[in-house]
Amino acid sequence: MEVLLENLGVKPDDTKIDALTGSKMVNMNFYPTCPDPELTVGVGRHSDLGALTVLLQDGIGGLYVKVEEDIEDVAKKGEWVEIPPIDGALVINVGDTLQMLSNGKYKSAEHRVRTTSTKSRVSIPLFTMPKPTEKIEPLPQLAERDGGARFREVVFKDYMNNFFSNAHDGKKSLHFAQVNNH
Ligand SMILES: O=C(O)CCC(=O)C(=O)O
Ligand SMILES: [Fe+2]
């Protein structure tokens, strides 16, 4: 987190890093085999709500990430790409919080999970998130540099409530904090 923010020219102190990532949550997902994976939803398309998510990979696979439409110089825009399953590797997802903080420089990864017909799978992602009472808004240096904040200030608890009261539907969760003219 520190490195990612320093990359944008911002030097957060330890207290700030702790405020932004100090809350931890895990999901425990079980994906049974399905004879026809096309007929089932493993996890529907969504972005994670926190700052960064850490996910230990197995050799089975099934995690897909959607390549953003509005970034330059990448292949496969708008397509779903499977993350190659490398046993023991850590996959790190950017979550909505980091997108808001960075004023949109880092984009949260829209992802989904499919089951396979041959192997069941368990995944236990670790979400690092702000403390519930923390106020999240684009870092002032970045908003100033970009000529305006693309997200309004939200209390993280409210963002969470909004996130969990809606079904997974791509990156719509971010609309809650988006400033309309962007
Ligand atoms: O099972 C996975 O690979 C990812 C699960 C996931 O996206 C989640 O729990 O938020
Ligand atoms: Fe996720």
Automatic annotation (TrEMBL):
Protein name: Fe2OG dioxygenase domain-containing protein
Record keyword Iron present: yes
InterPro entries with a match to the protein in the record: IPNS-like_FE2OG_OXY, IPNS-like_sf, Oxoglu/Fe-dep_dioxygenase_dom, Plant_2OG-oxidoreductases
SUPFAM superfamilies documented for this protein: Clavaminate synthase-like (SSF51197)
Keywords linked to the UniProt accession: Iron, Metal-binding
A Pfam family this chain is assigned to: 2OG-FeII_Oxy
Domain Fe2OG dioxygenase span(s) in chain numbering: 21-130
